[in-house]
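Workshop exercise sheet. Pairs work together: one partner reads the sequence aloud, the other fills in the structure field after running the prediction. Swap roles for the next sheet.
Pair: D.N. / O.F.
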Amino acid sequence: MEAVRRWRTDWRYPTTLLCIYGFFSTVKPLEPFLILYLTGPDKNLTTEQVNNQIFPVWTYSYLSVLVPVFLLTDWLRYKPVVVFQCVTLFITTAMILWLKSVPAMQAMQFFYGVVTASEVAYFSYIYSVVDLKRYRKATSYSRSVQLLGYTVGSVLGQLLVSFELMSFNNILMLTLALTAVALLVSCLLPMPRQSMFFHRRRTGQKIATGGTKRHVYGTGDATEHTSRAKVSLEKMRDEKVEKEEAEDEATPGPDEKGPKAEALEESVGAESCSQVLLQLWRDFLQCYSSRQLLYWSVWWAMATCGYNQTANYVQVLWEHVQPSQNFSIYNGGVEAVSNLLGAATAYGIGFTEVRWDQWGELALGGFSGLGAAALFLMTFTGNIWVCYSGYVIFKCLYMLLITIAMYQIAADLSMERYALVFGANNFGALALQTIITSVVVDSGGLGLGIIPQFTIYASYFSLIAVVFSLRGLFTIWRMQRSNKSHESAPPVKQQPPDSEEHRF
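Structure field:
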């Protein structure tokens, strides 16, 4: 029993449970074949109904519940929202299995929007139950196991469909069983005693905000960078881990809290919700006062909007290029390959030595242009394998660039401010996506077919490429001119680190 007690108080216990939950909740064998299932004899819906009436509901639902779920997640301390996400996922899968009409499928998409918005609880939970020095490992495990779940689901679905081992309805029954396992595991997660905003502890807050105290009270802006901009977020966290592990290897787990720790706990939510919201607003203004962070965030929002639209409707494009009645489709295999290559690309970027503060914006523009070319190729080709290849290239490019953006934005932000910026950027992406969906896709708007839709998406990424390429060229020219002026100037006085030339 002593060994069990120690295991339950160790940081590995909640991390293991969360990873098990993340795996079983993301194994969805039918997801790559959802269009085929909805338009097949089981549901007998038309492609136009799915494309223009059913799928747009997810965007509207996601946008409408994102902010309330974000605040409730922190206020309820994560675990209840994790359990709620799994219950809602179970309901969504059951609705796909047993309901057939267009209104029923629209309700299913609404619930799935709630599931997607609740993912913030999964990604935030681990930070409330492990120590700061364990953040990197815990984050790596929880995100990697999600990728593993998506990949296993795609491969499993491809095998089951290609070899006709299960019908679509039986695949959904299997998914319900896997979701039930995830629900059971979510109930076993230990309840956190703190959260980022509403239930903070004074000791934890010192650790979390120590690196940005100078931004709150100093004259520099919230995301100033010097030469450290070349260092990835992972390496910075590695240095923290090495220093803290040298101090104390036997750190108590989340449940080992003495009376002194309890006395230090500060329940912000008990004081005033308005104070928390006011502080969030001040942090929001402080973070986005950095023009460089603002540029990266604008790209994040615009690119994520375009990526989500592409990923949501790419199955409709594949069905248009090569109808499934005439071809053995390989959607699951393509999703698995794109996930693995995208993860490898994102992982490899952490080992590159590039001055992203100088070359980053040009990289955003150039690689966005390649993504636009891949989308144009997907749109106008008549070969399904070319279309598949274009999607894999597009997804890998997006994973590469979003990883660079995350590194650059997170480098000098505390965990609380990074969560705020992350949420704000995703909200901006959803707002743009809602506008595009309501105008371009929704039957209440233009209700365009899939080829005009993807032509617009490709043109959209072309616009991103032009804007950020021009901005990147201007940044390089300005930095080179600044370097020349520094070389010609007499070395009388060293330039302060918060000057305009060294910002971010």
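Discussion prompt: Confidence is low (pLDDT under 50) at residues 203-271, 495-504. What would you look at next?
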